[in-house]
Amino acid sequence: MTPRKASTLAFLTLVLGIGYLSMHAAPVMSDDDYSYHGDTEWRTDVSEAKQVAAEQDRPVVVYFWTTWCTYCEDYNRKVYSDPTVQSRLDDFVLVAVNLDDDGTEASRLKQQYNVNYPPQHVIITPDGEELTRISGYAPKQDFLSYLDSADRQYNGSESR
Length: 160
Fold this sequence. Notes:
By secondary structure, the chain is of the alpha+beta class. The chain is 48% helix and 19% strand. It is built from six helices and six strands.
């Protein structure tokens, strides 16, 4: 192997290694029961979230995300951290599903709600019926409109 080929191969290996590490080194704040996005606490167990939602008669926001998703970071910085959004999310039970999770529950949810890329929000009834979907990034006002629409559908009225 020529020195030039060896240098090129070493350089490509370095670039790929840095790319891999940067995608998997993003800080994720979580514990066994919750994931935290933009100072908002999201459950990680969908079954538990549906049970709580049924008990409290509230819809569920299922947030599909990944650590490498730049739009997910935009949600953290520009949407979830907003006091109006945080207040409005109090009317919902929140659950976050990491699309990189290989578990059976995450795989089942991805398939059930046909989610292939982050970020996506699927707002559902406690029984799992889809009320509305937010595909991709939605600015704060649009996000609030989606929440309002889902809430109206869930409560069966056009005014809050």
